[in-house]
Write a structure and sequence with these properties.
Layout: H1 3-30, H2 35-38, H3 49-64, H4 91-112, E1 121-124, E2 127-130, H5 131-157, H6 171-183
Antiparallel strand pairs: 1-2
Length: 185
């Protein structure tokens, strides 16, 4: 395998890992919330977690449906509608299903992409991007919104929050456990 092909494979693997990590973070934060908490608007001009999820679902579906062959901003996307606050906790179950399906669309695409696809041109709102640049754009976009979800979920749960990373005050213990595990291999 050439260095170029190996680099492309490594980039695709890195993108898969990044997207899966961000989805996992969001899923673990969302799982700690009640449907009513999904609808909480933290301050004027802020979005509820439900709205952030709606927006990400719309974005995932628009960007990754027919990714290589059509503009990433689909004509049927109603982006402004994604920012209308749901009023009923019953909407959350629908959002959870849409969330899982939208991410699956992305993961299926990433599994189908070939290293030679990374330098192909795709369009988003008519603007040309390499596949590499378009995917990197989405990694950044989703990291931003997942961060919003996690911060809001943590604030809502307060003392009941289950950490998604190393608990405060336990960094040294965590590092020691990693070192012990690597020494046993």
């Amino acid at each position: 395998m050439s260095d170029t092909a190996q680099l492309a494979e490594t980039l695709l693997a890195s993108f898969r890992h990044s997207f899966r990590s961000y989805k996992s973070l969001a899923d673990r934060a969302l799982a700690q919330l009640s449907p009513t908490e999904w609808l909480h608007v933290p301050a004027p001009e802020c979005n509820s977690i439900a709205v952030i999820v709606q927006h990400m679902v719309g974005n995932l579906n628009s960007r990754f449906t027919q990714f290589l062959t059509s503009d990433g901003e689909k004509p049927n996307r109603q982006r402004d509608q994604e920012f209308i606050e749901p009023t009923s906790p019953e909407v959350v179950a629908t959002l959870q299903t849409q969330w899982a399906e939208a991410w699956l669309l992305l993961f299926d695409l990433l599994d189908a992409l070939q290293p030679t696809d990374l330098l192909r041109t795709v369009r988003i709102r008519g603007e040309a991007y390499t596949v590499l640049a378009a995917i990197q754009r989405q990694v950044t976009h989703y990291a931003y919104h997942v961060g919003q979800i996690v911060v809001q979920a943590k604030a809502l749960r307060g003392a009941d929050w289950q950490t998604l990373s190393i608990p405060r005050g336990q960094s040294e213990q965590f590092t020691q456990q990693l070192q012990n595990a690597s020494n046993q291999v």
